[in-house]
Structure formats: structure tokens, C-alpha cells
Amino acid sequence: MHLHAYQHRTGLNCETTCMRNVLAVYGIEFSEEVLLGLDGGFGFGYFERRDNGPDIVIGRQQIFSGQALRLLGVRARSFQGSGPAILLDQLKLERPVIARVDLSELPYWNSHGGAPFGGYFINLVGHDDGQFTVSDAGFPELQTISEDALNRARSSKRSPPINPERWCHVIESVCGTPDLARVGYFAVDNCVRDVLKPGIGNLGLPGLKQFAAGVRNWSYTKTGTVKMQLWSDGGVHDVAALACQLQSLGRAIEVFGTGGGLFRPMWSRFLHTFGDLVGDERLLDAAQTMTSSAQLWTMLGRNLLEVGPESSQAVLDQQLAALVETIDRIYQLERKAMDGLRSIRPPATRVPPAAAHRNTTSNFA
């Protein structure tokens, strides 16, 4: 059984790639940047580990909120449940299944259980002889996974508080045509509000401040050695806890499905695209500020990826000092961007005719 209407395409981010590819089955084409912007999940999250393993840093505040689909007039259904039956029922209805999993439990990633992350998404697009066919944003070809391995990946509890909890999502129907100029403002306003005043202090700008404080303590909290998978040979080795933390942060920023720069380039491109569409200088100004932040995040991530198990203590201390300085600069830029978009609403004047004419799905794709 395979969903022939589904076209596998790689992408920048697992969640937005999954949404983009599933929407295409229903004849709806949007870029990942637009889906990220409409979903309102952009932001920041910081979760300290109680041991000396690497703290978790993410560039989104919500995981599959469903807001983008609702704003696009798409009726979706979310469900939980173990085992293959609940998934097979949806595939029999010709519906691709967006499944949330622990990345480290996907055998074809060959991570050997290292770096657990329960906020990863894959599309299930077929099943045959006890094996599910997987469309994964990180691979140019379709992958396969056994029913048992998939259940382990969906049920993993190895990355609290970001465990997959067996969540899955399907699109049931397309209900209407979106007015992007209107829903875009709603999405930006909702996102900015959540970044400035999140429900918990680990998220948004408060979370970024917590992260800055946590980084300053890593010399004392990240001591001894921890297990880490090295990309040089694929094996799991004992490495200095601080080296593991710094390289893990580099991977979170640049490698693990953020589009590079911890989602900042993607969100700044959304603001540019939307700002051009509606002719709003506030959006364009914020986009430029976020581009500056994105450049710092990218530089930071690439530098941290150079940290290795052989790095001396002097090199680790130097990297840590640069990290502290860069995070402070990033905070100021992102505070400026969010303050500039605070309580943003459509301008009182009408949208210029040229911009109104461009208000089509194809211009956002």
C-alpha cells in the first residue's frame, strides 16, 4: 500500500516540510517559510538538563500548533495511539500521516540512540509486509521502518519535556481559500505576543535570558565526561561534557532541521515576503533586524560545530566566552524586532492595488 498522490521532497525543517508535502497532495502549495510564519511557533526554548548532559535549545515555541492549517482553511485531525492499526486506518483513507517521533529512535538515522529529540516529524506514506514507508525531510529518498521501531520512536520518553507522546496528524478536508493579507497579520501578532510574554519562563525572550544565564554557568555545570556520538566514525565515545554541550548547541542551531541559524533566516524571509505583499514597512524593518540576528546565530552555530573531543580546555573556554557575548547581542536584536511588531495590525489605509493583486497562493509558494 502506497499513497501515489504523495510526492516526496526534502526540506529545511521537518515540521514545515511535512506540512508542505501533505498540503501538496490536496493541491495547496506554500513555501516552508510561509508555513513557519503562519504556524506562529517561531521563537525560542531553553531546557536545562539535571545532569551534565547537553541542555536543550530549540528555535520554536510550539510543536505542530495546527494554526497554519486552520488559517489556510484546512480541517485537520490530531490523535494519539500506540501500534500500527490507528496509522493504517488513515493510510487506507488515502491520507498521509504526519507522525511525531524521537529522532534518535529512527534506525535509518544511525544515531545509535544519541541526542534524543522528541519534536521530530516524519510523513508515513505507505505500508507493506510490516514496514512503513517514511518520507523524511532529511533524506532524498523514501525510507522504511518496522512497525516495532516506529512504535518505539513514537512512544519514546527520552527527551522530556519534548517527548512525542504518540501524536499524529492528518488532513481531512480543505474548507476554503485563505486571505493571506489578513491571516498573516494575525499570525505575526500571535507569535510576537507569545515570544514577549510566553506561558512559561523557558520560552521566548525570557527563555533567551535564561539561556544567557545558563551559558555563563556551563564552566561549572558541564564537567566530567558524557557519552556522545561522533560524526567522524559514527561511534559513541566519552567526551568532555562542555565539548559535548557546545557541539550539541551547534548541531541544534545549524543541523537539526532548523533551516540553519535556528529558524531565524526562515522567519526573516517570511517577514520580508509578507511585508512586500502588504507594503508594510514595520514588517520589513523587523525582517532586516531578524536577518542580523540570523547571521549571528549562523556564525555561532558554525563555530561551535568546529568543537571536537580533541579541543583543549583553552579552546573550549574561548568558545564559551564568544558564546556569552554573541547571545547578549542576539537578545538585543530580537528584543528590538519584537518590540517593533508589538500589537501589529493591518494599516488603516488600503493595501496598494499591486500588492492586492499579488495576494495569491503562488506568490507565497
Topology:
Elements: H1 14-25, H2 32-39, E1 42-47, E2 56-60, H3 67-71, E3 74-80, H4 85-92, E4 97-101, E5 120-128, E6 131-135, E7 143-146, H5 147-155, E8 167-174, H6 180-196, H7 204-216, H8 218-221, E9 225-229, E10 236-240, H9 241-254, H10 264-278, H11 281-305, H12 313-340, H13 353-357, H14 361-364
Antiparallel strand pairs: 1-2, 3-8, 4-5, 4-8, 5-6, 6-7, 9-10
Please sum up the structure shown.
InterPro entries: BtrH_N, DUF4872. This protein is of the alpha+beta class.
Characterize the structure shown.
This protein has 14 helices and ten strands. The strands form three sheets. It has a six-stranded antiparallel sheet with strand order 3-8-4-5-6-7, sandwiched between helices. Strands 1-2 form a two-stranded antiparallel ribbon. Strands 9-10 form a two-stranded antiparallel sheet. Residues 349-365 have low confidence and may be disordered. The protein has two domains: 1-30 and 74-175, Cathepsin B, Chain A; 31-60 and 178-365, no CATH class. Helix 2 (32-39) packs across helix 10 (264-278). With 365 residues, it is α+β, with helices and mostly antiparallel strands. The longest helix has 28 residues, at 313-340. 46% of the residues lie in helices and 16% in strands. It has helices at 14-25, 32-39, 67-71, 85-92, 147-155, 180-196, 204-216, 218-221, 241-254, 264-278, 281-305, 313-340, 353-357, 361-364; strands at residues 42-47, 56-60, 74-80, 97-101, 120-128, 131-135, 143-146, 167-174, 225-229, 236-240. Strand 1 (42-47) and strand 2 form a beta hairpin. Residues 13-136 form the Butirosin biosynthesis protein H N-terminal domain. Residues 148-340 form the DUF4872 domain. Residues 344-365 are annotated as: Disordered.
